[in-house]
Amino acid sequence: MNTKVISLVSVGAHPTSGRARRAEQDSRAVELGLQLAGGELRVLHAGDANEPALRAYMGMGLDSLHVLENPAGSDALPALADYLRDAGAQVVLTGSQAETGEGSGMLPFLLAEKLGWPVIVGLAEVESISNGVAHVLQALPRGQRRRLKVRLPMLATVDNAAPKPRQSAYGPAQRGTFDVDEVEIVEDELFASAALQAAKPRPKRLKVIKAKSGADRMKAATAKASGGGGQVLKGVSAEEGAAAILKLLVEEGVVR
Amino acid sequence: MSAIIRRDPRAEWIVRNRLHPLHAAMQPVQGSWMGPNGVIRKNPHVGAFIGPNGVKRIDRSGAQQGGGSKRGAAVEVHLPLHRVAEPAFYVAVVPDMVGGRLSSHDRDVLGLAHRLAGSDGAVLAIVFGEHKESAFDTAGVDRLLVLDGGEFEGYAPEQRVHGLRAVDNQFDPRHWLVPDSRSGGGELGRRFAASLGERPATRVWQIKDGECIGRAGAGQQDIARALPRLILAAAECAEPVDETRHEALPVQLSTAVARSLPRIEDLGAVAVDPAAIPMAEAEFIFSGGNGVKDWELFHRTAAALGATEGASRVAVDDGFMGRDRQVGASGTWVTARVYVAVGISGAIQHLQGIGACDKVIAINLDAGCDMIKRADLSVIGESAAILQALIAAMAAYRNEAKRDAA
Fold this sequence. Notes:
The structure holds two protein chains of two kinds.
Chain A: E1 5-9, E2 11-13, E3 20-22, H1 24-37, E4 42-47, H2 55-58, E5 64-69, H3 77-87, E6 91-95, H4 107-115, E7 119-120, E8 123-130, E9 133-139, E10 145-151, E11 154-158, H5 170-175, E12 177-182, H6 190-193, E13 195-198, H7 214-222, E14 231-233, H8 238-252
Parallel strand pairs in A: 1-4, 1-6, 4-5, 5-12, 6-11, 7-11
Antiparallel strand pairs in A: 2-3, 8-9, 9-10
Helix pairs in contact in A: 3-4
Chain B: H1 9-16, E1 32-34, E2 40-42, E3 48-50, E4 56-58, E5 81-82, E6 90-93, H2 104-117, E7 122-128, H3 136-139, E8 143-147, H4 157-171, E9 175-179, H5 185-196, E10 201-208, E11 211-216, E12 221-226, E13 230-233, E14 245-246, E15 249-251, E16 264-270, E17 284-288, H6 295-305, E18 308-311, H7 313-317, E19 338-342, H8 348-353, E20 359-364, H9 370-374, E21 377-380, H10 383-405
Parallel strand pairs in B: 5-14, 6-7, 6-9, 7-8, 8-15, 9-13, 10-13, 17-18, 17-19, 19-20, 20-21
Antiparallel strand pairs in B: 1-2, 3-4, 10-11, 11-12
Helix pairs in contact in B: 4-5, 6-10
């Protein structure tokens, strides 16, 4: 396949130690890009080129990584949009949200809005690309998949349903080179008014029982789970019972 | 029936009248009698009744005799109606409506919207396509806007954003609230935000004094900021509405929704291997227990229905199913939308495991077991015959669908 693919990557943070690492979902985007385009894949980062964690992406088998030099706390969107507009890519892959900073997950949608491209959420697999149209599988909650037909060029975000990223090798990671571009710096106005703080653990929701009397409270505390009087079919033939079950399954939309 | 104790003069009269044909049947159960060895025996259950406060009372006056007190379940509580005749402003909510019903996340977001609306504003819920929900009033919906039409069916995020923009033009809500969930809300909210050009607050879990706090990054940090117009709220962001009833008045869009050529076309769901879906997040589980005798038939039925297989502890202990398939307290706590229990009597540990399930169907021989009390639909009978019939019905259903498609 000679599709031009660009993966957008960011610097992640380890969930426990908070150390910089390759971001989990972005490395999945790189993996999917490598499966689609092989060595032709281009990987783009907007941020600091001196970040050593970025080398972990090159350890997945890339010769170079393109960096749009952007200081921390600035808006990456204009630089990325300008770059992608002229890059001529067919498919742009990103993770669904960053692991550091605001992490709102808005970037792919804002980019798509600026470029006028369609955006797909939760890309799991690209089945075929032909005549400017891609057939892709989208991951849904509960392990389900949906087939979509999308006009190219498109933007797609990947989440944990995408293929697992390959291991990053140390040697290629050190040999890889950075292509650094200077871009215009746009300040992000959010951090002028809001500040990041350590996450407060959220209180567990308590089951509040609003009962008027002690007996009601006792009943609520000791009651068994019950559906509250379902339909009981007794003395019906097996066929009638099966028909009733199938009717409910079809109503609920679980039988296809 | 109310909880108030009422006298039944007719029953009392029958008890006094020895010649009445119902006299014997209406006799109160004897409280004490002489046993065969000359010892007085007492029945401690006689004469006790549940008082108006739900406390057990023993009446020794004899006034309660005659038919006994007949009392049904407690009357349904009528919550006070919250009415907003002339809304000063709107707070718009776009619930996920997974399976056509409000999810618990949707209810939390509606609770948050109700708090933001106060007494002057109205909560406007926007629902796309067909729905099966009947409890919009107790969930806190003041105005209900159903955007119906073929263009919103299936996966049509771009068309839905057009719909929301039309709502935004007409009602100009003070706040937009969308559940930040994977089942559609998170995506739709972000698309809508990008289309409006407004910066939303995402993963918001607390709103207090005009400020909102949401998770940032990978969940290690919080970000506090002034309350924006567009809020993507996390689960359990507020308590759901439970003290008021709302009008849920239907409203209409005055203008037609703009239509655009879809760039994303939905080609429908893809069949996935149900065994590969993790039990905890499977949507449809077909579970077998001690009452299943023919396991080969059970597996065939699960395959015919396309359901993920589960089992009770007994079936696992007996070696019919793997340990990873066990549902219940010591196995997996499942969240299926539809759970079919075949030959499972419903031990409390098992019922705990299926507590989050939406619809439970039971197939059982014993009509008095706990699973039947929990189930929404129960079929009493031999499981083998019902499973056979289910396979046949399923084959007929598929044939019919194929003929319709052809």
